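Subject: for your reference before the review

Hello V.,

The reviewers asked for a structural picture of the protein, and I figured it would be easier to keep everything in one thread rather than splitting it across files. Below is the amino acid sequence we used in the manuscript, unchanged from the supplementary table.
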Amino acid sequence: MSDVRYWLWLSLRLSPGSSAIDTVLGHFSYDAKAVFKADRKELEKVLGLKNEVIDALADKSLDETRDIFGWCMTQNVGLLAYDNPLYPERLRSIPHPPVLLYYKGKLPDFDKNVCIATVGTRKISEYGQREGYIICRDLAIAGAIVVSGMARGVDSICHRGALDAGGHTVAVLGCGINRVYPPENGPLMDEISLSGTLFTEFKPDTPPVGSNFPIRNRIISGLCQGTLVVEADDRSGALITARTAGQQGRDLFALPGKVDEQNSLGPNSLIKDGAKMVTCARDILVEYEFYYPNVIRTENLPVFLPRFVNGIHQREQVLKATKVLITKAANDAWAEEEKKNGKTAAPKKKSKIKKKASTMVEEPEIEELPFTAEEPKEQSAPEEIEVPKFIGKIQADILKLMPLDRPVSADDLAKQGQEVSTVLSAMTMLEVGGLVRCLPGGLYQRIK
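And here is what came back from the structure prediction:
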């Protein structure tokens, strides 16, 4: 491994994403020191190298290199060069790979882990918030690394889901590592730098200009085996990342959406073109658990009952219906066994119960289904709902603010001291935990 300062110098001479990266590295056998020592005549022998690139590489000044290197050492910013053994092999294989990456936080062994990129619109819907959060939380629970761009909307929700699960998440920035963008994501950036990884190809102080983001997107998809598009309209930058992932030979996943909504145009179109439809994290993880048996643990995924449309059915009702169906199957099996043994038919009382069960199973009103004689009599007493382990203090505090006698909106709760985004994230966790249910019109009802 050569001196990282030569790679830093080279990264300052070749602009991020430049097509000259492949040409220069290939000609000089991927040796940054050899490029530094090459004079102008030798550089002119490199086929296809433009004059402006030759001029930049002929500049051997180390002043900026020295300043940035010193700054990184004082600010605890790591430098991951192309020839470093920890540089991801998947990233080396993409066209125009980054010569050097600035990073903060923990540096995982990417090649031994499953990394999933999650991208989407900045104008995320409540549906996208809920599903993006849950999927990324579950990806992290099962051992995958969640990679995104720390932008507003989908990116932020997906990072938050992974962090709340105690997992590892990687944010690839479109600016210098000392710039916070968007400004409101400062706390999120700090949290990722402590328990995840911040990555950028751009030198310190680089502003977050629009042209940087398509360049950085090739790194987001290049780090990962697969890319998930959560929500995106037909002109979203997330589709650039999806297209790049396809060009890099990566797997492509998409969360389906309503056909009449703008945010669904992107993922639904990708599904029609061959992307795998995803409804939960398991749909992604099954593609990799065989190849990474010591990393991916789908048995750790939480198991929840389905959430029904418009919040009409409660968890208790679903449990009740399940018990009745089980009872019907048990009664049928018992009757069949009696028949085989040549015994008399079931006692009249049991027969009556069996008939009721089989009749009522077909009716839509689940709450009217009877129980068998074996059901405990204290049915009217509500079961105590245990708070899942992933429900934290913030979610618990917001739950206490919710009245028992009426539904409330996220805006109502936000007026009591929390950000709307924080409230929505909390509602997702509480709904999954069976502590609240979502009602039409963006309202939430606390379950007694």
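For the response letter, the relevant points are probably these. Residues 13 and 57 are 6 Å apart (CA to CA). Confidence is low (pLDDT under 50) at residues 305-330, 345-385.

Happy to draft the paragraph if you're swamped.

O.
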